[in-house]
């Protein structure tokens, strides 16, 4: 996917938001694990660019937490992060 400068900036903001505020594993104080959530940022950018709504975005984040990471998940927190992403 060839990105515009605006999309690259948005990707960076999403990456920062995932690292600093979503952080379902609780590792954002370990700089050596900094790239842990980067792999999710590009797909989340794609969802945003293609008009995903809050439910779709939150569901995707929750799916990452519960299926990909095998955690219990926190859907309410995923909704809050989805709101933040959609308002970037």
In short:
Helix 1 (5-22) crosses helix 2 (38-49).
How does this structure look, described?
The protein has 88 residues and is an all-alpha fold. The chain has one domain (5-86). 65% of the residues lie in helices and 0% in strands. It has helices at 5-22, 38-49, 54-68, 75-86. The longest helix is centred in the N-terminal third of the chain and has 18 residues, at 5-22. The chain starts with a helix and ends with a helix.
Helix- and strand-based class?
Answer: mainly alpha
Spans of at least 5 consecutive residues with low confidence: none
N-to-C order of helices and strands: HHHH
Strand content: under 5%
Radius of gyration: 12 Å
Number of helices: 4
The domain tally reads: 1
| Distance separating the two termini | 20 Å
How would you characterize the largest beta sheet?
none
**Mean pLDDT across all amino acids:** 94
Q: What general form does the structure show?
A: globular
Level of helix content?
55-70%
- The tally of strands reads 0
């Amino acid at each position: 996917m060839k990105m515009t400068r605006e999309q690259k900036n948005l990707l960076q903001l999403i990456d920062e938001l995932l690292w600093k505020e979503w952080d379902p594993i609780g590792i954002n104080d370990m700089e050596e694990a900094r790239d842990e959530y980067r792999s999710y940022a590009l797909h989340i950018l794609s969802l945003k660019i293609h008009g995903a709504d809050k439910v779709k975005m939150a569901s995707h984040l929750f799916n990452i937490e519960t299926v990909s990471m095998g955690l219990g998940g926190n859907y309410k927190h995923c909704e809050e992060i989805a709101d933040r992403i959609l308002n970037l």
